[in-house]
Amino acid sequence: MIQSEEQKKKEKQHKKEKKTAQERLDELLDSGSWTEYQQFTAGSEQDKSYPNDGVIIGVGTIHGVKVCVYAQDFTVAGGSLGKIHAQKIAWIMDLAYDMNAPIIGLNDSGGARIQEGIEALSGYGSIFYRNATYSGVIPQISLIVGPCAGGAVYSPALTDFIFMVEKTSQMFITGPKVVQAVTGSASCPEELGGAAMHATISGNAHVISQTEEQLFQQVRALICAWKTVQTSDVIAPNVKQMDYLLPDDSKKGYDSKKVICGIVDVDSFYEIHEKFARNIVVGFAKLNGEPIGIIATNPKVKAGCIDVDASDKAARFVRFCDAFGHPLLVLEDVSGFMPGVDQEQAGLIRHGAKIIYAFATATVPRITVVTRKAYGGAFVALNSKAIGADFVFAWPASEISVIGPEGASSIIYAKEIHESANPEQTKKEKMDAYRKQYASIYKAAEVGLIDDIISPSETRERLIQSFALVVNKKRSLPGRKHGNIPL
Ligand code: HXC
Fold first, then answer.
1. Which of 250, 293, 411, 435 could be joined to 321 by an S-S link, Cβ 3.0–4.6 Å?
2. pTM to 2 decimal places
3. Domain count, the chain
């Protein structure tokens, strides 16, 4: 049987474990919900032979939520972007803005259509312009389901969330061949721009999956995470076990995801950036059916210290939640910002400042729970009352102080420790004394830095009650063109 050219291209796509644009839409969207627009487009003046000009645009639903979608079709000129192709994407983005609906872009493209020359470049510009203009107005989600190279990467980079598939999707500014030509060193595409690299090292990818099918399920779950659930459908976690969750040894790490799951509705936690900067955990969840955003330091990784990557991760998440009205819950067990030459030289001051800026300017309801310790600048930065938290609670064994006991005793008791016959023993005694005198949670409660001391098992109920109190909170920032977040 003679295969058509179109059929051959479809097969080539399937052999690479990639789906066609239409197959992808069928999996991403609710069955029967798709309406396509401008399907008779066929390329620009120079070349009229490209069906749909290599991109499908339209409107569908995900779990009943209206979404606008564009899907680049690699079987048509490698999904390359020409003038009409760009015009279609810009049009569907404008429609998403007018509809106040999320825009989802499926990127599978060889980049600017070479035959169309610089007009294709200008097409990218028109998309970037809309990515930036609609930022914080409509959620923007990018699925990288094939190549995304050169300047084309800046459209996904300007969106809120990037999803990638392991082994079949790549993002890089400069591809392996050009890297080799310019620098003389070979690099493998996965190392240069694969999903695993972007999920763990660069932080460009927020969610990755092993297959396209899984990816579409994850996108559907994200849209679902932003929806309210009826309280009659809520399954509450077993809160009793929360009182036994923390290790007896206060220096031992534990996984803050266990704390999150002991507070929020069962199976509602949706983690963002799971493999990147694991010393802080961020994600969406539901509390008694209401969607919230969670930021939790993670004592299991780097003792939960905040470093450059953790700062970027947390600050960006806070900005998304604030822009789209998701109340914020901070779970805090943090000994401070990460000390050391590496971090200082990497700009921890500038990056850490993003967290303060993001929280201080967030006007959504926001609550902090100190679960074990909160020392120094990290206590202030992570949604303290001083920078506008609505409520700050602490678990009974928590410590809050200007600096951790170890650092404090090495400064204020340095002389006694140095002159002692048994410096180790003296240091331990001084640390205990410091804990009692300066770091006790009751000291913080006495001066109103925290609003109440609550048990782990009552945390869920107190949070549900407290968020309900501030659900209609009205705060606004001083009028200005825009602030200048430390970038
Ligand atoms: C026109 C293109 C194209 C492009 C691919 N095709 N990229 N046509 N412009 N940019 C066409 C091919 O000619 C081929 O057409 C079909 O798409 C499939 O491509 P293949 O090469 O056969 O596929 P594959 O082997 O899978 O390789 C995919 C690829 C490779 C890795 C993406 O095609 C590639 O390297 N393309 C060029 C990538 C690139 O350098 N882009 C940068 C452009 S500049 P037929 O008819 O044979 O099926 C740019 C700047 C943007 O993007 C700046 C924004 C500000």
1. 293
2. 0.95
3. 2
